[in-house]
Every structure is written in structure tokens, then in C-alpha cells.
Amino acid sequence: MTNDDERIALFLDYENLAIGARDGLGVSPFDFGPIADALAERGRVVSRRAYADWSYFDEDRRLLTRAQVELIEIPQRMGGARKNAADVKMAVDAIELAFERGFITTFAIATGDSDFTPLVHKLRELDKRVIGIGVQSSTSALLPPACDEFLFYDRLPGVEPTQVARRGRGRGRPSTSPPPEPAVTPPPEPVEVVPAAAAEEPVATSEELDVAPLVARTLAGLQRHSDGPVLASRLKRAILRKDPTFDEADHGFRGFGELLRQLENQGVIELSRGSAQGDPEVTFPEDASADDDAFRLLVDVVRQLQSTGSHPQLSGLKDQLRKRLPTFSEKRYGFNTFLSFTKAARARDLIAMEWDDETGDYLLTVPTT
User: Fold this and answer.
1) What domain of life does the UniProt record list for this protein's source (predicted)?
2) The pTM is what?
3) Percent of the chain residues topping a pLDDT of 70
4) How many other C-beta atoms lie within 10 A of the C-beta of residue 345?
């Protein structure tokens, strides 16, 4: 069974995720978009449920409604009874869905709480694939090994921490004190079709987005999570799962194939004959000239900053690159994050990176030859 055949049911222990992201990453309100993107690369999400006492998460509730997530209310109770009520309700619903919806092949359990480890074991006994999702600082060490795959929220493309992530592993469930009044932030990506009743502000359409990074980011995700070739038809389905409003006509193309050919001419992707007529295989170019230009830009900027006597930090370095090349985006080269791009440069021995506890950031240098 390929990833395209997967039917995914998502269950979010929302209090654990939201408070973990707030305390560990400084992210508030919680951004659901990176989770939606990661699951869209793995299959079709047919059910989305989030469990919490929503009186504590007014802003989050609005954003989740826009993302078509069903909100399950767990009313305030005293002490551990409230926590247990949420855990039990979520576990019972997951097992019930496993029996009633046999077509569901994968369960995504978004929590860092080790109390859900027995649920993971039971779902795997029922021949279901289990993907765990959690904030690293608040994820129990017992949970990831129990899953078929575990995604740390901190590492998902699109997550932008506003504080340095804690470098230790925390407890399974963070403090349950109500979060502070969150600052207003833009709605998470990907942009979903929004019911009229839920729309309180304009939603960006695919026409306003740069299509090359979207295609490259999706292609990179599919290549990471599958063994076989990525065909154009499969690539478009994954893009539509990320952004249901996507239409190549908005970007001036008469068909998706024409869009891909244009991106091939730009050196973003490479097309080759696929298994069916009119459905080519899509890969990244083997010619590394475009990548070399990007890495050369990075090295030049780091070297220039070094020459002034400063110690270049990862934070803010992307802005320095864009001062030299305003159109720079690591996503054009298939990297989901700027950190991944710089680590690729390090793997090629172009730069050195070292974590500095004092600044709470990576320091970059160009090795002397």
C-alpha cells in the first residue's frame, strides 16, 4: 500500500500540544498548519478531532474551525479527573473509529503524554499504522518508540519558534494552567476552504503564493516519505491536500503539466518519462549548479560577516542573504527550513556550525583552507 492510499484519522490532545508549544517554543496560539502539511504528504486526512476545555483557547478555537477540525469539549473538572476525562474520551473515540471505519489505515495521535502509549499499542494490534506528533520538550521518552513514526512539532516545516527550544526532554504533560491571552497572529497554513460563518478575515488564495516553493516543498516531502517514484498526478494530489484552493490557472498555466515544464526550465525540478502517458516522473535536478549558487551565496555572506569581526548567528542570517538576493528561498532548492539548508551546507564542508549556549543559537563560520 502506498502513502497515497493511506486514510488518516487525526486526534489532538490539544491542551498538551498548545501548552507544550507555548512553554517550550514560545508559540501562541498554536499553529496547526505544519501538522496539516506533514499529514497531507502522507495521505488523505478523513477525520480531525481536537480535545480540550475550549474556554481556555478562544483564539485557537477560531483557527481550528477554519482548518476544519472538529472540537470536542472536555469541561473543567477538579484536579486529575479533568485530565483523565480528556484522555479516556480521546482513547475511546480512537478505538471506536478503528472498528467502525475499517477503511482508515493510519491514526495520527498528537500528544506527548505517555498515558497514550497503551492506545498506540492497541491500534497497532488492530493493524493500524500510528504516527505520533508532539512538542519535543513535553514529550515522554516512552511514546516515540511505540509509534510507527513520530514527528516532533519543533522540526516540522513552517514552525517558527519565538524562543529557544528547551534542550532537554520534559514530562509527558505540561502544566495545565490556563495559557495567557494570546497575541493575534495570522491564520496558519495551509489555507483551507472556510465556511462563511467562520470567516472573520480574508483568506489568501493560491494565486497570491509563489508556486515554485510550494511544488518543491511538496516534492521533497513526498520523496522523504515514500520509496517509489513521484509522478505528476501524485504530486498534484498532495498539493491539493495542502491547499484545496490551488489551481495552476491562477498562475497563468493551462494545465499542471505546463506548470511543471516551466519549473523544469527554471531548474527547480526535472521531468522524466513515467509509467503512464502524460504522467511524468518528477524529481529534483541532478545538475547541482543551482544548489551550488545558493550555497555559494551562503558562504559569501557568512565570510563577509566574519570579516567584520562578528560571529554570524543562524537567526537573522536568511535576511542577510535576501539583502544580496531578494528572491532567495531555501524551498526553491527542496529544503523545508533554512536550518535544513544550512545543515546541508555543513554536510558539504562549506561551513561549520556550532551550538552556543550563551546566545542560544547556532554560530556559523567558514572553515579556513
Assistant:
1) Bacteria
2) 0.61
3) 81
4) 21
